[in-house]
Every structure is written in structure tokens, then in C-alpha cells.
Design goal:
The chain has 260 residues and is an alpha/beta fold. The chain is built from eight helices and 16 strands.
């Protein structure tokens, strides 16, 4: 069992939890995720590790209350124990010195983006982060992302913060003013699809994270199967990150409807 050490509300339905997990904190790398079971009757919830502290032995998780198990997790408080936290799982992000990297995140997708932003900066890249949400209240981890970014661009659907518009508009602003060597995008599937369509036109290599489709997290259930470059892949064991230009997003969006 893993003790919750602190809790912070980003919004009414999104919380940040710092959890005691020394073995995971020691071996986790950007892109890795964990499986969390809140209690003896809870579901398996895949959550990307937003941050880790090796010295303190903690990991940071960002959870959005959507179904019964995530609502249970979000209702827990410091001092409570998560029944199981298993990881790190999945394939780590490929971090290289590329030049200028645009890291784009939508909504709670900014949480798994944060360790990638940091690693890209530590690898010597110029990092421009584009954060997007429907409204100002849904922009999360802005200060933490800014710490590791050369520039942060904020886009909101309603114009309540930053610029009014979509994440793709923020990315294209950067592309049109300077040479971009790589784009990383994490967020809703429809967002990542349109980011991939944009960067394909400019010929910019793009990585997406497809953690939103995972269920079991160990490759046994098959719920996260997707088509990448014409071949079947499992997000939890082969990913969660893939070449966004090779992902069949239309198939993924169709299959995601099964969770509605």
C-alpha cells in the first residue's frame, strides 16, 4: 500500500497527489506510467507519472475524476493509502538533443508532458511549450512547465487566458517564425490528430502519447490496441508514445467511443 503525502486541487475534478513510492521514484523515466488501484474493490487505473523525487521517494500523479475509481482516488486525502501502485510501466520517452522542440499539452495531458519538457531541456534543446484548455481554470502546471521552457504559449478556447484559439494555432505560430525540429503532443485524441495533421504538412517529426486508451496496462486485455504504420500495437507495452504521423487516429477515436 502506498501513502498519499499531499493533495492539491487544480480544479473541482482534477487533483495532484504526491504518493510515497520509493522504488518507482528511483527507476521512473519520462513517459513511464503506473497502475493505481484505490481500494480492494477498485479498478486498475493507468496514470502517467507527472514527477518524481528520488531523494524523498515520492511520485506525483494528476488524476481527473471521471468514473467511480478515479472519483474514489480524488476523494482521498493525505494520510490515506492507495491499495496498489505498480510500475514504472511502458516505454520511456526517447530524449535526444534535436534543436528546437515544441511540447504541446491539452488539459490534464500537461501532467505527463511535464517530465518530457524537463528532460528535453536538460538534453540541451530549446523548448517552447504550448499549453491549451477550454478555459483558464483548466490550465494546469503552468509554473512547473515554465521552469523548464524557454517560452510558454497559452491557448484557451474561450480566450479567458493567454490567446483565444486551439493548440494547433499556438504550434503553427512557432513553426512560422522559427525552425522546429520536433513536436511532442499529449492530450485528447482529437487534439493529437490535428496536431499530427498540422506537423505532417510541415514535415516535422512528431511524437504523441496515447495513454488515454489504456485499461489493463499490461498487455493482457487488448483494449488499447491501435494501428501504427499498418500494424497492430498495444499502447501499454509498445508505447504509450508513437510516431504521430503513423497512428490511425480515426480508428482510435472510433474505438474510444466504446468507453462512453
Amino acid at each position: 500500500m502506498n501513502k498519499i503525502l499531499s493533495k492539491e486541487y487544480f480544479s473541482e475534478r482534477v487533483v495532484k497527489l504526491v504518493v510515497d513510492a520509493p522504488l518507482i521514484a528511483r527507476s521512473r523515466r519520462p513517459g513511464h506510467f503506473v497502475i493505481v488501484i484505490p481500494d480492494a474493490h477498485g479498478e486498475r487505473i493507468p496514470l502517467t507519472i507527472a514527477d518524481a523525487d528520488k531523494e524523498k521517494g515520492t511520485i506525483t500523479l494528476v488524476v481527473q475524476a471521471v468514473g467511480p475509481s478515479t472519483m474514489t482516488i480524488c476523494s482521498m486525502n493525505p494520510g490515506d493509502f492507495l491499495h496498489d501502485v505498480v510500475g514504472p510501466l511502458g516505454q520511456a520517452t526517447r530524449i535526444e538533443r534535436r534543436g528546437t522542440v515544441v511540447c504541446s499539452g491539452g488539459g490534464v495531458g500537461v501532467a505527463p508532458l511535464l517530465p518530457i519538457v524537463r528532460a528535453m531541456k536538460e538534453a540541451g534543446n530549446r523548448v517552447v511549450s504550448v499549453l491549451a484548455a477550454r478555459t483558464r481554470d483548466l490550465i494546469i502546471l503552468e509554473e512547473e512547465v515554465a521552469k523548464w521552457s524557454d517560452e510558454v504559449i497559452i491557448m484557451t478556447d474561450d480566450g479567458s487566458y493567454g490567446q483565444k484559439g486551439l493548440v494547433t494555432q499556438g504550434i503553427e505560430q512557432v513553426i512560422q517564425r522559427e525552425s522546429v525540429d520536433e513536436v511532442v503532443t499529449i492530450g485528447p485524441a482529437i487534439m493529437m490528430k490535428f496536431v499530427a495533421e498540422l506537423t505532417r504538412r510541415y514535415g516535422i517529426p512528431t511524437t504523441c502519447s496515447l495513454n488515454t486508451i489504456m485499461v489493463d496496462g499490461t498487455g493482457m486485455c487488448g483494449a488499447c490496441r491501435i494501428t501504427v504504420d499498418g500494424k497492430m500495437r498495444f499502447v501499454c507495452v509498445d508505447g504509450p508514445e508513437f510516431d504521430a504521423h503513423k497512428v490511425d487516429f480515426d480508428e482510435m477515436l472510433m474505438r474510444l467511443k466504446g468507453y462512453n
